[in-house]
Specification:
Blueprint: H1 9-14, H2 25-53, H3 58-101
Keywords: Membrane, Transmembrane, Transmembrane helix
């Protein structure tokens, strides 16, 4: 029985897979959601602090916060999707090479 590789806490959260086999769709979605939330949260928090200290009117603060939230989710979600897609492509190529070598 193989023991799972030990990863740092950040790696365990953002990308805990070894690369030996392609990710399932569930694993891919887990990575996309984790990246979108983990990287967007600090942006929203900093934006909230700036709008509070700048005494921004409520309607403008809400628009700014929603823009940062949606933009962050979109940008980091798409980035994670590209990573998962590349990862799966590389893992499939590795499997093909291993099968040809046998």
């Amino acid at each position: 029985m193989q023991t799972p590789p030990h990863h740092s806490p950040i790696r365990a959260l953002l990308f805990p897979y070894s690369g030996e086999e392609p990710l399932s769709s569930r694993q891919g979605w887990r990575i996309i959601i984790a990246w979108a939330l983990v990287f967007t949260f600090p942006m929203v928090l900093i934006t909230l602090l700036v709008t509070v200290f700048a005494a921004t009117p409520l309607y403008k603060a809400v628009i700014i916060l929603l823009s940062v939230l949606l933009g962050g989710l979109l940008i980091f979600g798409l980035s994670a999707w590209a990573i998962v897609s590349s990862f799966n492509r590389i893992a499939r190529l590795r499997q093909v090479q291993q099968n040809k070598g046998q």
